[in-house]
Amino acid sequence: MSVTADELVADRSGGVSWLWRRQLNHYPDTRPRVMYLAITVLATITLYYELYVGGSVSTFILPNLKMSFTFFVLTLAFGNLIGAFGSLFAGLTDRLGRANLVVFGLLFTGVFVAFILPAATNKWVFTIEGFVVGVVEGICLVATPALIRDFSPQVGRATAMGFWTSGPVLGSLIVAEVGSLTIPATTTPQNDPRFWTSQYHYCGIAGLVVFVIALIWLKELSPNLRDQLMVTLRDRALIEAKAKGIDIEAALRHPFRQLLKADVVVSALAVSLMLMIYYTAVGFSVIYLSSMFGLSTKDANGLGNWNWGFNVIAVILIGVISDRFKVRKPFMVVGGAAAAVMTVIYLLQAGLQPSYYTLAIILALLSFSLGVAYTPWMASFTETVEAHNPALTATGLAIWGWIIRIVVFLSFLLLPTVINSVTPLVNYGGTVAAYSAKYPGFAFAAANPAVVATAQKYSVQLANAQKFQPELTALQKDQTNVGTVFLNCATPTKVPKAVMAAAIASAGGGATGQGVLSTMCANAAAIAGVIKVGPQLQSLAPFATQLTELASIPKPVVAYMTVHGAAVAKAAAGAPGQWKKWYWICFGGIIFFLLGIPLLRGRWTTADARRDEQEHEAMMEAELAALNA
Q: Fold for domain 5-423+577-628?
């Protein structure tokens, strides 16, 4: 049986009911099936684009909305916690269907991202609105892989899941690509603090366009069809023949009790731990790359193109290859092991100064390895759920969605305790760096703290030494005569005329000399103070030029550097070790993933997998013959 264009038009003949009546009573032929799969993947890409768009402009959002890094991380953490319960709700799509949740979820998120979130002017409004969007996306992002499963038999499942997995990756890639193309290198949070809103406008409008496409064309299988196990497309005739006899209520009874098993729960936990490094990249790669390696926001997003581009290649390519060889587990092992190695290489770069292309190659290989592991896992996980009950695919995916968001929530709660260096670097580091480059005196002060401390201690005497330079020079020329006059200037009549004349001559003669002596007399205490600390002031003489530059720095700049300079320097020193510690935690998550692979369904060798397929085909032919007898 096939779904034709005439049937699609007929579905709409009853007025506007076609907007929500989306169920197909026959399994579609290849062309419409591919169209439904393509729309589902497009919706997934869009939803993840909307979910991740903030990462491309996080260095703008934090200072503009006055967020600390800790607040930003906690916002993402609790957003994932709230989204986790949205994912659990998505388990109801086994009863209610998937397509309408996806379609109208696209409408809701598109409006919020395009118009409501960019209007936020403080961190609390932005956060609460983000939580609302997170709930809806948590629902939709479980419904979409359920649709992919429904339209793809197990033979070919990895390819279909590869395209679905490209959704979050392409969402990330689009975020990075749009950011690198539309964020000028000269745009900074200081000169355009609200620039971040433009990225949300682009994203939300794209989401509304995809909503219209899904509204018109997205369909789903009826429960009688989707609640059966389909290994190959050749099973279609038997599935349609058996559809009328399916007891849907019985199949859906106690759904979570049926699936809360070790192979489902532990496997979902294992892949969630492996993906900690992925979610770290999604949320914080721009912050990490800009604060750790001094990259601009534009260049940090450019590295994202390498990261997500190679991941897209991997998830699709390995999906096709996995289906070709009919095995999943060997690819998971190879991908997981390679990802573990590349994680170690990546974390060792912290504290060094790798080139842009060195980072690009490392990120590309790491991301490719994660894709090699993840796509076969996704196919194997749905097959594991089907082994328990094919009618509960969405429930199984809801469990996975809930666990992955809880893991992200807990890891993001942990992250600020491991990494506390980001807020000074992101919020103040750029300004501190700009001031440091403009005023070399700060570098001198950092390199010569003892000299600066001495200059600050004797700042009054230094100023007086400059102010009374002629008088001090006169004292140096003829210290005895001038000194006598200086000491007795309060009673000049007691100074012999010859001595006074000599003093005036030493001070420059004539009116000039008399003026110098008068200044000495009027400022005797200040000049005596300079003479008293003469050796200390002499030690500062080699640094006169640098100290003069330091003294000429505007007071507001000095005040800013006094408040934030030390904190930024301390954060810069501590950041490499903190980020390394976090990536070691991510490395541990990948190792846990590798240990959980044996729990999943699937063979290790192609020969065993082909034998299982042949046995299944023989069984299906026998069942079909029995039904037709």
A: Growth Hormone; Chain: A; (1.20.1250)
